[in-house]
Amino acid sequence: MSNKEIITCPKCGEKYYLIEENYPMRDKDKLYCEKCDYILKDWDAAVIYYLEKSKIVNNN
Length: 60
Ligand SMILES: [Zn+2]
Description:
This protein has strands at residues 2-8, 15-32, 39-53. It is 0% helix and 67% strand. The site of zinc ion has 8 residues, from loops.
């Protein structure tokens, strides 16, 4: 099972897809913004996260 959501870096505004997947072992890790190294996600649970660059246009 996987889950995909859109996140925006609060520091530089870069948009990513955050993909969450169940993982059989407890994992402790972090994901950083590729642009500014802001910690976008940190976790300590039986899941794993990936970032995918998005081409989402901000319509606001
Ligand atoms: Zn950033």
